[in-house]
């Protein structure tokens, strides 16, 4: 993922929807391919990619105990089987923009490399790749610093 905006905007969304247990982008998403990242099988299920960016309201997430999380299936967790539908709040799609699945959006706040990112040759020229590569370069310069 590449963050392109101030994360304080996410905190503001939580304040605005303080009655919710979790906030997500509610993608109406059906995968375009049968294979995905690193040639893995693309699984289709309800609420696909909702869990790829979650903002939790800890006061309302009591069902997510260590015991529950360790016993639940991955699919149950990804489909939000632990929470009533009415407690799932919605973030604008710009907070979890699916690269290559959605058209380029200059207003995207966080971009999610769902199929693979620019660190792989096959995705070197995908949307937002130049930004990601520039951020990596800047981070490496600071580390060498």
SSE pattern, N- to C-terminal: EHEEEEHHEEEH
- Proportion of strand residues: 5-15%
User: Ends: how far apart?
Assistant: 24 Å
Strand count: 8
Based on secondary structure, the structural category is: alpha/beta
Strand order of the largest sheet: 1-8-7
Unreliable residue runs? none
Task: Quickly count the helices.
Answer: 4
Shape call: globular
Q: Percent helix among the residues?
A: 10-25%
Radius of gyration: 17 Å
Mean pLDDT: 93
The largest β sheet comes out as: 3 strands, mixed
Secondary-structure map:
Blueprint (H helix, E strand, L loop, with lengths): L1 E2 L4 H9 L5 E3 L10 E2 L3 E2 L13 E2 L9 H6 L2 H5 L9 E3 L6 E2 L11 E3 L16 H16 L1
Parallel strand pairs: 2-6, 7-8
Antiparallel strand pairs: 1-8, 2-5, 3-4
In words, what does this structure look like?
The protein is α/β, with parallel strands linked by helices. It is built from four helices and eight strands; from the N terminus they run βαββββααβββα. It has helices at 8-16, 66-71, 74-78, 129-144, and strands at residues 2-3, 22-24, 35-36, 40-41, 55-56, 88-90, 97-98, 110-112. The strands form three sheets. It has a three-stranded mixed β-sheet with strand order 1-8-7, with no helix packed on it. A three-stranded mixed β-sheet has the order 5-2-6, covered by helices on one side. The chain has a two-stranded antiparallel sheet with strand order 3-4. A hairpin with a 3-residue loop joins strand 3 (35-36) and strand 4 (40-41). The protein is globular, with a radius of gyration of 17 Å. 19% of the residues are buried. The mean pLDDT is 93.
């Amino acid at each position: 993922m590449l963050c392109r905006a101030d994360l304080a905007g996410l905190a503001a969304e939580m304040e605005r929807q303080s009655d919710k247990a979790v906030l997500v982008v509610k993608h109406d998403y059906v995968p375009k391919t049968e294979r995905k990242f690193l040639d893995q099988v693309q699984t289709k299920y309800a609420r696909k990619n909702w869990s790829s960016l979650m903002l939790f309201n800890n006061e309302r997430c009591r069902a997510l105990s260590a015991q529950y999380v360790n016993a639940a299936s991955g699919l149950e967790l990804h489909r939000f089987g632990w929470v009533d539908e009415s407690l799932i709040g919605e973030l604008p799609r710009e907070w979890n923009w699916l690269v290559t699945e959605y058209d380029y959006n200059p207003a995207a706040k966080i971009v999610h490399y769902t199929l693979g990112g620019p660190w792989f040759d096959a995705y070197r020229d995908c949307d937002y790749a130049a930004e990601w590569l520039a951020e990596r370069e800047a981070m490496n310069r600071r580390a060498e610093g």
